[in-house]
Q: What sequence folds into this?
């Protein structure tokens, strides 16, 4: 009898060990610890995989070591599996509620972000400004700033006419939030200041969070369509990095976007987003009101916004993890490429945009901005035949008494409150004015006339 009790105890212990080994698998750990990213360390990934496999094998051996082990432990296994399933369901529901509560708190408080239904999903870009949308940029100090997109989804000043007659030169600007003029009024951005200086029209097709993948897609569509005189293309290290990550930065939820990878022939090619976003389909804007948060409103937010968004993102995150694991196993490489493709992407994207500019008689200007902010994101600079280069970094630093980061942000970031507090590190209106003047100088001829073709 004692031996039987001992074997039963071993069987239950074995099942518990097998279950703990299952929980230790690297995909589940990575999902729990970092839902929007990967474990990062290959050593940690392999260590968890070995530990998980060993735990499962040892547990099953203890549970079913003898001939009668399987039959004797089936009831115990069923009970344990049911208990574990209920426990995991309750824990996951609590995890969803916790994450939804953090989202709700963010929506109900003035933090850096957006107010209003300003964006939408896009099949080629991942996401894009919603045409004819109005809203606000929000800050944790001070008033909100108005944001308006025209019928084509381009950012325009709040008081711009609905259907303006374009004046030459037409200036197309491409880039991320720095070119979009994040934290500034639309007319304070360097694209609009440049158009004002040249007496022309700015088409601001930049967007916060964009990388070189969206820059190229926008250029391929807009240069033949608009036939601009000047095409202003931002170059920053993070634009290159984003084009290889498959996800754009987001305040809420995951934002999958297209990314560059190599084909079987070794050529750089644009790949579609790993899945379709959900964040712009849930009614988050309905809860950006003046009412104080309440339990009733949170429950409404949870079931209408938080729960659908998180279930969607988690489901696709698991699928992406599995695809990544298969890619590592079958192709000996992760699903998403690393930064080692960065220089090839720079050459490909800026080369393609330069080619389109030459074909459509447009002057290309590459704006160098933020190249010293992260050593990990230092890729080769674009070298495009016929393109002008406006070194915004050099122009901005040349007007400062020293080149320290503190002095730079004191002069060019956004400060509010008393005492002043930095509410956003994007270039302010003064910085945009310097960048605009730098571009004007880059495209002037010896006769002090701006090079345009129409």
A:
């Amino acid at each position: 009898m004692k031996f039987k009790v001992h074997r039963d105890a071993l069987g239950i212990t074995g099942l518990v060990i097998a279950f703990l080994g299952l929980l230790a698998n690297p995909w589940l750990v990575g999902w729990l610890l970092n839902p929007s990213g990967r474990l990062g360390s290959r050593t940690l990934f392999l260590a968890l995989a070995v530990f998980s496999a060993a735990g499962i094998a040892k547990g099953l051996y203890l549970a079913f070591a003898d001939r009668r082990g399987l039959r004797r432990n089936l009831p115990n296994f069923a009970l344990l599996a049911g208990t574990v399933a209920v426990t995991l369901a309750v824990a996951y529901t609590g995890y969803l509620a916790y994450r939804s509560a953090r989202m709700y708190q963010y929506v109900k408080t003035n933090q850096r972000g957006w107010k209003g239904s300003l964006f939408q999903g896009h099949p080629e870009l991942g996401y894009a400004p919603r045409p004819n949308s109005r809203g606000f940029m929000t800050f944790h100090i001070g008033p909100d700033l108005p944001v308006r997109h025209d019928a084509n989804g381009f950012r325009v000043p709040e008081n711009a006419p609905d259907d303006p007659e374009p004046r030459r030169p037409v200036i197309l600007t491409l880039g991320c939030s720095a070119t979009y003029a994040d934290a500034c009024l639309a007319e304070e951005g360097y694209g609009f200041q440049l158009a004002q200086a040249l007496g022309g029209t700015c088409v601001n097709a930049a967007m916060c969070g964009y990388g070189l993948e969206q820059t190229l897609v926008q250029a391929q569509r807009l240069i033949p369509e608009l036939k601009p005189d000047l095409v202003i293309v931002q170059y920053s290290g993070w634009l290159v990095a984003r084009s290889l990550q498959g996800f754009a930065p987001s305040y809420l939820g995951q934002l999958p976007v297209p990314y560059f990878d190599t084909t079987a022939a070794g050529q750089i090619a644009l790949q579609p987003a790993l899945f379709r976003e959900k964040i712009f389909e849930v009614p988050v804007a309905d809860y950006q009101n003046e009412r104080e948060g309440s339990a009733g409103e949170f429950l409404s937010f949870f079931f209408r916004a938080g729960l659908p968004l998180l279930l969607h993102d988690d489901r696709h995150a698991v699928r992406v993890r599995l695809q990544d694991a298969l890619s590592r196993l079958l192709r000996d490489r992760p699903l998403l490429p690393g930064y080692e493709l960065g220089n090839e992407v720079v050459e490909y994207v800026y080369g393609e945009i330069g080619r389109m500019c030459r074909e459509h008689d447009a002057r290309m200007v590459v704006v160098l901005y933020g190249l010293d902010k992260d050593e990990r994101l230092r890729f080769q600079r674009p070298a495009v035949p016929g393109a002008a280069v406006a070194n915004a970094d050099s122009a901005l630093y040349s007007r400062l008494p020293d080149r320290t980061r503190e002095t730079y942000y004191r002069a060019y970031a956004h400060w509010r409150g008393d005492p002043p507090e930095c509410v956003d590190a994007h270039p302010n209106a003064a910085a945009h004015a310097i960048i605009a003047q730098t571009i004007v100088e880059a495209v002037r001829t010896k006769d002090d006339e701006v090079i345009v073709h129409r």
In short: The two ends are 99 Å apart (CA to CA). DSSP finds 13 helices and 14 strands in the chain. The chain has a mean pLDDT of 85. The CA atoms of residues 148 and 158 lie 6 Å apart.
